[in-house]
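User: Just a sanity check before I run the rest of the batch. Below are the structure tokens for the first item. I only need the designed sequence back.
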């Protein structure tokens, strides 16, 4: 080979390195972002844009050190802001992770192939014919080996990360910053090393690896430790997310158990009132019989009227067509009375609905519980709660509406936070709406939340199934 061919090979090496980096950016994005947000076409587009930026900077005849990372970060931030601002933490973390795996390769590659190059060039006998051609040939082989080493190293790092991140979780800014610490460290170290590796002096050039031979082993070890640190951080985050998810699931189960307990308790109280009423009725019927036998019809009529009033006050105010939803809505109506809150319910839920009555009860219990909490924080004359439910074709539509103070608190994942629970349960707040969403997913439905002019609205749509899960 000739010197000119080696120069061409070196240019191709730089281009191929940029192409490989661009491809792996898409692979890493796919590990952390849902396909609904970032499909394959968008991944290819982002990888292509980053590759083009790299090629343009590579073609510039003067030093552009640091520009690729800076411009890349800005481009990634803008693109994901346009796609979905909620996944900006994911995208920034992936950008730094992508740089981290490259810098890990860079440190190891620099030390290993610098040592190999020294040994290869030192072993050539330059006094023999064709020595220069053999030198160029070995240089070409080393360039190809570095490309293969880069592809294998990045692919191995990708496989390790993919093994850890088998489930895609939401990510807050705090988590993104925590996970990017090792990437930032590797970035800084690489630039520090690059600055001192080759230093031009007045009469000679200083090569750090020539003076510090031990760095041939130190740099690959440092690269490995940086990657292990990044992987440890990701593994810790994944475990934290799994534990948090399990804790939330447990809280949902406890919420459902509490609902069933309250249902049973309310039912027992209702049946106790019925038994008491029946017991009292026997005595009162004897009195009524006595009035009639003694022809005291006016007294009998008056006494019978009083019995009707008592019967109406001991019956449920709202009938939905299902005993479970009857209990939930009537209990909420009683709580609303205590809060001096206007309560309106137009809810029809027959037993044969294809939707589990317990599931429906949990939805209503959570929606009404949140509404009660909201109206309790505003003046009495502004309080109102409205709940409706009806079948439309094969769907059951629930609408809950209530007044509130107009202030919504959200967590880092944009979930609405219950202010009362936020003070007591730390990160375990907002279980109610998550339970509603979980049940909506179970019935292939949706949940929409909106607020306007101090009015909070939740709309839940459930798809009726062929099986009947209702309680009778």
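Assistant: Here's the designed sequence for the first item:
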């Amino acid at each position: 080979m000739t010197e000119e061919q080696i120069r061409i090979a070196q240019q191709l090496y730089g281009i191929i390195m940029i192409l490989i980096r661009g491809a792996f950016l898409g692979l890493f994005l796919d590990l952390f972002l849902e396909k609904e947000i970032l499909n394959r076409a968008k991944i290819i587009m982002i990888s292509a844009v980053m590759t083009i930026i790299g090629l343009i900077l590579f073609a510039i005849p003067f030093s552009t050190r640091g520009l690729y990372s800076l411009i890349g970060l800005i481009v990634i931030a803008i693109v994901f802001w346009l796609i979905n601002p909620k996944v900006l933490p994911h995208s920034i973390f992936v950008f730094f992770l992508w740089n981290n795996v490259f810098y890990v390769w860079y440190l190891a590659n620099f030390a290993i192939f610098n040592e190999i190059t020294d040994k290869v060039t030192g072993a050539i006998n330059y006094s023999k014919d064709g020595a220069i051609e053999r030198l160029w040939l070995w240089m070409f082989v080393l360039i190809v080996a570095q490309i293969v080493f880069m592809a294998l190293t990045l692919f191995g790092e990708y496989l390790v990360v993919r093994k850890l991140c088998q489930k895609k979780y939401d990510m807050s800014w705090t988590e993104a910053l925590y996970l990017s610490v090792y990437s930032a460290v590797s970035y800084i170290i690489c630039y520090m090393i690059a600055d001192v590796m080759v230093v031009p002096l007045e009469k000679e050039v200083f090569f750090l690896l020539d003076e510090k031979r031990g760095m041939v082993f130190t740099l690959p070890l440092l690269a490995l430790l940086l990657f292990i640190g990044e992987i440890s951080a990701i593994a810790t985050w994944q475990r934290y997310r799994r534990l948090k998810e399990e804790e939330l699931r447990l809280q949902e189960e406890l919420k459902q158990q509490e609902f069933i307990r309250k249902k049973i308790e309310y039912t027992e109280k209702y049946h106790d009132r019925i038994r008491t009423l029946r017991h009292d009725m026997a005595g009162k019927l004897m009195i009524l019989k006595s009035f009639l036998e003694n022809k005291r019809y006016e007294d009998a009529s008056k006494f019978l009227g009083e019995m009707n009033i008592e019967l109406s006050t001991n019956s449920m105010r709202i009938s939905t067509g299902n005993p479970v939803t009857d209990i939930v809505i009537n209990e909420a109506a009683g709580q609303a009375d205590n809060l001096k809150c206007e309560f309106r319910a137009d809810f029809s839920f027959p037993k044969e609905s294809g939707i589990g009555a317990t599931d429906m009860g949990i939805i209503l219990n959570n929606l009404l519980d949140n509404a009660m909490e909201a109206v309790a924080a505003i003046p009495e004359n502004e309080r109102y709660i409205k709940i409706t439910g009806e079948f439309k074709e094969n769907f059951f539509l629930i609408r809950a509406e209530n007044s509130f103070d107009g202030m919504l608190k959200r967590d880092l994942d944009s979930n609405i936070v219950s202010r009362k629970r936020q003070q007591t349960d730390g990160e375990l707040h907002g279980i109610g709406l998550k339970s509603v969403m979980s049940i909506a997913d179970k019935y292939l439905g949706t949940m929409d939340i909106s607020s306007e002019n101090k009015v909070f609205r939740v709309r839940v749509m459930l798809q009726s199934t062929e099986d009947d899960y209702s309680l009778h």
